[in-house]
Specification:
Helix content is 36%, strand content 31%. By secondary structure, it is an alpha+beta fold. The longest helix is centred in the first third of the chain and has 18 residues. The structure holds zinc ion. The site of zinc ion (ZN) has 6 residues, from loops.
C-alpha cells in the first residue's frame, strides 16, 4: 500500500514529508500507457504534488504544471490533502538515448520552460506561483520553486525506477523543509547528510517505507511521525461531470454530434477513462437543455 507520512524533528528545526508511490505511478503508467521516460517524469511530478498536497487541509487542491519545450510536452498533475492524485503527460510515447545506465533522461525529455504550482484553497482566487525550469529533473525544479516562489527553504528528492518491461519497480520521494528556527549548524549537518544519501528510488526499491526514508533524511536527529495518509490515483471525473460538459457545448453542437458520429466518446485527459454516449443518451441531454 502506498502512503505518505509527515514528520518533524524533536528540536523543531525541520519537517520531513516522505512518500512511497510505486502503486500510484504504476496505475498512471497503465492508464496512460506511458513509456519509461514519461513514466518517470509523471511519477516524479505526481509524488511531488502529493508531498505539496500534504501541507494542505481538507478539500484544498494543488496543481503542478510542468510546461517544457522537450518531447514530453506538458505534464499536469493535481493532488489534494487527502492523498488523492491524478495526472497526465501530453506525449506518453517518448524515447531518448540513455546517457547514464539505469537513469531515465527525464530532464532532456522535459526541456526548458516553466513549472507552476496552483493552490486552490477554497478562496475566491486560487494562488499560482511559477518558476523557470532549471533542469527538468522535477525535484530540483520543485526545490527551486519552493525556495524562490514560496520562500520555504527546502530540499526535494523524487525518483522512479522502471523495470525491463517498463513496469514501475519503485517510486517515491521526500520533502525536507527547514523551519524558521533552524540554526546554521543544523543546516550544515543536514546538507552534508543529504549529499550522502542514496537515490530515493533505490531506497524504495530496497524496501524502505516512508518512515525509513524520513529517518534516513533526518540522520542523527530524532523525528516524530506526525501522521500517515494512504495515497492513491483517483480522478474527479464521472458520467455526470462529462454530461455537464456536453450540455455546456449547447444543443446545436450536440445535434451535430448525433448526426455526424451517432453519439460521442469523451476521454478524460487526467485519467484516460472514456465515456461513451449513444445517440439516445445525447437526445436525453438535448431534452435537458430544452
Ligand atoms: Zn478522469
Amino acid at each position: 500500500m502506498d502512503y505518505l507520512i509527515r514528520s518533524m524533528d524533536t528540536g523543531r528545526n525541520f519537517r520531513v514529508f516522505a512518500a512511497v508511490t510505486t502503486g500510484v505511478t504504476e496505475i498512471a503508467r497503465q492508464r496512460h500507457d506511458t513509456w519509461p521516460i514519461a513514466t518517470g517524469a509523471l511519477g516524479r511530478v505526481m509524488t511531488g504534488a502529493l508531498l505539496l498536497g500534504a501541507n494542505l487541509k481538507g478539500r484544498d487542491m494543488v496543481t503542478v504544471r510542468v510546461t517544457g519545450d522537450g518531447p514530453l510536452g506538458s505534464i499536469v498533475v493535481s493532488a489534494n490533502a487527502g492523498g488523492e492524485v491524478r495526472g497526465y503527460v501530453q506525449e506518453p510515447h517518448v524515447d531518448l538515448p540513455r546517457q547514464i545506465e539505469g537513469k531515465l533522461p527525464v530532464g532532456a525529455a522535459v526541456g526548458r520552460g516553466t513549472l507552476s504550482v496552483t493552490k486552490d484553497l477554497g478562496l475566491k482566487e486560487p494562488f499560482t506561483g511559477s518558476v523557470e525550469i532549471i533542469s527538468g529533473e522535477i525535484a530540483e525544479d520543485l526545490t527551486h520553486y519552493l525556495i524562490t516562489s514560496e520562500q520555504v527553504p527546502s530540499a526535494v528528492s523524487l525518483g522512479v525506477l522502471v523495470d525491463g518491461e517498463g513496469r514501475v519497480r519503485a517510486s517515491g520521494g521526500f520533502w525536507l523543509e527547514l523551519l524558521p528556527g533552524a540554526g546554521e549548524e543544523v543546516v550544515g549537518i543536514l546538507e552534508e547528510h543529504l549529499a550522502g544519501l542514496p537515490p530515493v528510488s533505490s531506497m524504495v526499491d530496497n524496501g524502505a517505507s516512508p518512515e525509513d526514508i524520513a529517518r534516513a533524511v533526518a540522520g542523527n536527529f530524532q523525528i516524530n511521525i506526525l501522521d500517515k495518509t494512504p495515497v492513491c490515483f483517483r480522478c474527479m471525473c464521472g458520467v455526470k461531470k462529462v454530461e455537464n460538459l456536453l450540455v455546456s457545448l449547447g444543443s446545436e453542437e450536440i445535434q451535430d454530434m448525433i448526426e455526424k458520429s451517432g453519439g460521442a466518446e469523451v476521454r478524460c485527459h487526467f485519467c484516460g477513462e472514456t465515456y461513451n454516449f449513444s445517440a439516445k443518451d445525447m437526445e436525453r441531454l438535448l431534452e435537458e437543455i430544452r
